[in-house]
Amino acid sequence: MSYSDLNRSPFSAFPLCELKLVYRVARDNLLKNSELAGSQFLSSLQIYLTAWATAEGVDASDPVQLAGWLDDVASAGDAEWFSDKRPFRLSSN
Known about the structure:
- This protein starts with a helix and ends in an 8-residue tail after the last helix.
- The protein has helices at about 5-10, 15-30, 40-55, 65-70, 75, 80-85.
- The chain contains six helices and no strands.
- It has one domain (about 5-85).
- The protein is about 55% helix and about 0% strand.
């Protein structure tokens, strides 16, 4: 996904920091709300955020880098903790 594709996304109407916050909260609550895991919204948000991270030079396949980019300070230094808290794999698309 290119920057121009990112800018045409419906998500581009919202501040990136707010999208990151929504994603982190949803991700951290997947075990309590399993229906989130299959939602089209969360899947689309995940793809959008992963594309932004990649466009900014983040290796989205590296949980530590991606957590740091998502401003998830608590898990940015601990890849094992991050992987345990994330019951689904982030898409690299």
